[in-house]
Design goal:
Two copies of one chain form a homodimer. By secondary structure, the first copy, chain A, is an alpha/beta fold. Chain A has 13 helices and twelve strands. In chain A, 47% of the residues lie in helices and 15% in strands. In chain A, helix 6 packs across helix 13, helix 7 runs parallel beside helix 8 and helix 9 packs parallel to helix 10. The longest helix of chain A is centred in the middle third of the chain and has 16 residues. Chain A is elongated, with a radius of gyration of 27 Å. Chains A and B meet through helix 5, helix 6, strand 2, helix 7 and helix 12 of A and helix 5, helix 6, strand 2, helix 7 and helix 12 of B. Chain A binds a DNA duplex (16 and 16 nucleotides) through helix 3 and helix 5.
Chain lengths: 361, 361
DNA sequence: TTGAAAGCGCTAACAC
DNA sequence: GTGTTAGCGCTTTCAA
């Protein structure tokens, strides 16, 4: 120790004044080992052997200097940044916000930063983001929402996905997509079946559905569950479409009310259901006295709206966390399958659904 | 051209097979210039002169190869990654979600990625995030919410802020903080004054306030506006505190109803006001017939709740965008002031406020 | 106006 | 078990 004291002290001072932040060579110098050894001693998952005494010395020096590795320099070698991205259609939508919350928590507990990219439901914006992400060499990308089946979109997305796979990045989907990616998603079809059966069991026959855009597979899966059950019951199905926004839900409900007179409406998302509820109130119709309404997702905050919405609970935060876990397993090579893991959903019967008019007397 | 055709073709092929993604040296080779020149020709804000012919050749080569610079390699030199972070208390809260939306849009239009860090209202989580960000050398950090005045928090935050400043990163606040940072924020005090005056003008005297945590300056500013006006009118002020969540707002309203019987309540955020409204409904009280309620923020989605909430409009998306712009100006050295820019707010009188009971006959 | 060379801080062959 | 030596892809002196 005393032998190297003088140069070490000089180095310490110069490191402090020159760049403020200590770098690996400062640690190596302090511990009187080579750069390589310092690197190996500091990296927990480096298999190369390092003697306990040496490791202890390096660790001590690192602690003393408050050394933190430079993520960029590391990334330049490892070819990946310790960041995962989550691509959503709209951060403002509680459904996505909740997924983001779950994913962020899971990622940060593993030392990963989370980038949230909100496309505002514009495919081109989404493509721009994904290009950016692939160039930034993020470790993984989680797609929280669905994609388009359109040719141009698919081709560009395919290019970026290939590029990401090429540098060893992972991709996970949390909604049904045409791409063959590892996926964790809610059991949309089963959920839709549950609500429709519930409505049928209450005695409704004129059950309409407000679905999302036909371009999104999530819409189609939820429709499928509805159609299956309606057909099985010999009831006529009516599907109108909106865009998964609250305003869209309100507009769709208005159309439904003008054209048909459903006694119950299954809305493919709570966000849209909120709009449907608002429109019914605006027209002076009671829920569930005049019209029963059921949603899908069970977004947070529902406990504060009136009447309390019957819906299908989707474990959003869990989905986000599962996506991160899947990503990590992929990165570690433990699970590179492209299978879809379905997460169970649950019908939450609350106040917005009841027996139809004719039967409540 | 023909002279270099053969080697160029070979290089092109090898670049394609070896690493798939073209790098700067591929472009330089194709354009038959040095690495340096290629770099200069490609960088729009590099002042070093490059002849038009050369630049054109380099640009053509870059386009042909679909070259995109590696952000990590660039960051290793420039010491900053082209990413900005936005630290929020809760992504799930529409107030923050909306700010994030505005900031993300503004950042992406400038080629910056946005990292969203949600602390879930836990100061330690927030500190962990900021440390991570400082190590990642993000270009800037935007604090959407307030901070603590507590010693440990302030010291650690100060350390990270210094470290960020040291590598040339910028920090901007969108809420009042004890730190001396550039800030863009809503005129909280003026907004609170407006609502209180509105309630007073309607004839209310027993006007209570549900505020946020005492540790947050936003709460204090909004309280101040309320207190000022109440005092000026010679009315008794009552302030109860909640935590800026919907559930907290509901609980605070329940307490208020039990202890006092206010004819009007000013709630320091719409998110809490939603809870207050739910609690009033639960207790069978009419709004505004029995109690008037006013919020703050004008979060999106309010148009679908009933009764339509009287509130103070805060330009959230604009605030997010202004934060990004301020950050950019700081990074470019155009504006390194630590002044606070106040954004005007506006009273939105809607349905949840009316004359008090005694006066409506 | 162009280019050669020296790194940014770190990791990974490849020796010893 | 430890060290030497090359780079990762880019920017930036410095020299021509």
């Amino acid at each position: 120790m005393s032998r190297t004291a003088s140069p070490a002290r000089r180095e310490r001072r110069s490191a402090a004044t020159r760049r403020k932040l200590p770098i690996l060579s400062d640690v190596a110098q302090q511990a009187a080992v080579s750069l390589t050894t310092a690197s190996r001693a500091l990296d927990p998952d480096n298999s190369h052997p390092v003697s306990d005494r040496t490791r202890a010395r390096v660790l001590a020096a690192a602690t003393r200097l408050a050394y933190r590795p430079n993520p960029m320099a590391r990334a330049l070698r490892t070819r990946r940044v310790p960041t995962i991205a989550i691509v959503v259609h709209d951060v403002t939508d509680p459904y996505f916000a909740e997924i983001v919350r779950g994913a962020t928590a899971a990622a940060s507990s593993r030392g990963f930063l989370t980038v949230v990219c909100s496309s505002d439901r514009d495919p081109l914006t989404e493509l721009r983001y994904v290009e950016m992400l692939s160039l930034s060499r993020v470790s993984g990308v989680i797609f929280a929402g669905g994609g388009l089946d359109e040719a141009h979109y698919r081709r560009r997305m395919g290019d970026y996905a290939r590029s990401i796979a090429h540098y060893g990045g992972a991709i996970v989907a949390l909604a049904p997509r045409s791409e063959r990616w590892p996926a964790e998603m809610p059991d949309n079809r089963a959920g839709a079946r549950l609500v429709t059966q519930h409505l049928l069991a209450l005695g409704h026959v004129r059950i309409a559905m407000i679905s999302g855009p036909a371009t999104l597979r999530t819409s189609r899966e939820r429709e499928l569950g509805y159609l299956e059950v309606m057909e099985g019951a010999g009831a006529d199905a009516v599907v109108v479409r909106a865009d998964f926004t609250t305003a869209g839900g309100a507009a769709a409900m208005a159309r439904l009310l003008a054209d048909r007179s459903p006694s119950a409406v299954f809305v493919a998302s709570d966000t849209m259901a909120l709009g449907a509820l608002a429109e019914l109130r605006r027209q002076g119709l009671g829920v569930p006295e005049d019209v029963s309404v059921a949603g899908f997702d069970d977004i947070p905050g529902l406990e504060f709206i009136h009447p309390r919405l019957t819906t299908v609970h989707v474990p959003m935060a869990e989905l986000g966390a599962a996506g991160v876990q899947r990503l990590m397993r992929y990165l570690e090579g433990d699970d590179t399958s492209t299978t879809t893991r379905l997460h169970a959903v649950e019908l939450m019967v609350r106040e917005s659904t009841g027996r139809p008019r004719g039967e409540d007397s």
